[in-house]
Amino acid sequence: MELPANLAPNAASPGWMNKADNAWQLTAATLVGLQSVPGLVILYGSIVKKKWAVNSAFMALYAFSAVLVCWVGWGYRLSFGDDFAPFLGRPGVALNEGYLLQKAFAGNIPNATMIFFQFVFAAITLILIAGALLGRMNFHAWMLFVPLWLTFSYTIVAYSIWSPGGWLAKLGVIDYSGGYVIHLSSGVAGFTAAYWGRAYFGWGWTGFNGGDPYTVSMDASLAVLNTHICAASSLLTWLLFDILFFGKPSVIGATQGMITGLVCITPAAGVVQGWAAIVMGIMSGSIPWYTMMVLHKKIKLLKKVDDTMAVFHTHAVAGSLGGVLTGFFAEPKLNRLFYMVDEWEHYIGLSYGIKTGDFKGGLKQMGIQLLGIVFVIIFNIISTSLVCLFVSRIVPLRLTDDELQTGDDAIHGEEAYALWGDGEKFESKHNSVYGVEEFPPAPATATKGRSELEMA
Fold this sequence. Notes:
Helix 5 packs antiparallel against helix 17 and helix 9 (about 220-245) runs parallel beside helix 11 (about 275-285). The chain has one domain (about 20-415): Ammonium transporter fold, CATH 1.10.3430.10. It is about 65% helix and about 0% strand. The chain is built from 21 helices and 2 strands. Pfam families: Ammonium_transp. It comes from Liquidambar formosana. Belongs to the ammonia transporter channel (TC 1.A.11.2) family.
């Protein structure tokens, strides 16, 4: 295999490559990877019942490994390759040495670095979907679901929004680091898959959002700071709501608040001001809280679907909220810094459109953001449904009654120690409004507050 013409046989770094950018990109990718392995592997294995510890951790570990093989085999080229269609790249293998050592489509880094960076984003998307299916989906069905969903859903959404040739990218949709591609997609897909199968890691987000400028820049610094500002504001807001309505602070609730804040800021991380990140945190700590703690108990469809880790609320709702708020708070100057554009045709938040007199431009951006949300939701419902129906023709989607009763020993012949044993309930000793499989009744001291809330 021939090396690129601009890379001498003995040269470790070609002239176009920025060593600092490349080092940061690999570091950022590693941080995101740690969110999955061991982050989500440990989280899933420790928060579910003891009988599901092995299966839940294994689902995450399998997805991480399977996605990598599929990604270098065909996934990356479909997501970021040469233009083939407005929604898909030209198929191809990303293991050719000549290709790996060429300059990536963005930044001053080689394709090898970009492929690895984008892989960890694809992997965590599938692992987040697993969060809605823990202790529910047949493991053999999961083994088929992962490569199929990556191929026929993730690649199309990623190319449409993130690839320079994608149709939504050309329209000017703002998704800084995956609010649409990762979180909205995983939330909708997880909810849909759970429907068909019916009867964190906060510091890793430094690489998640800080790595997307593909360079060591001021924009990356702003993205990292805004990420943690929003997460902290969201955590505190969620915690406050728990205390006000349920009488006790919840560690699991605070974690959910942190996650919704991280998800909400993701599409906006480097293109909004710090004050806007705080506002987004307050909203991401309150609106998903309301959908999870109130609407989930009132809407028949939400009650019908067994979303184990409430991925719909923490990722689909929070991701959609982040996309809308991005369309409102996006700062034109910061967008120009990130997207490297001179014109003001795109990338102006509605609030700045009103402020500068370009109301039409701001309204157009908001429309593009909403279009992106609608596309991701509808496409994921259709693609995930088709994948699930196809898989169900080969193996059952849902575990058998015996496997549901027994857990890891019936599925893998193994058992593990987890945080809670079989039969233990939060309300028996440690009153909490959060449960793994369903939300238990509120503590007696908070009955009045809950009744008033549910009547709202």
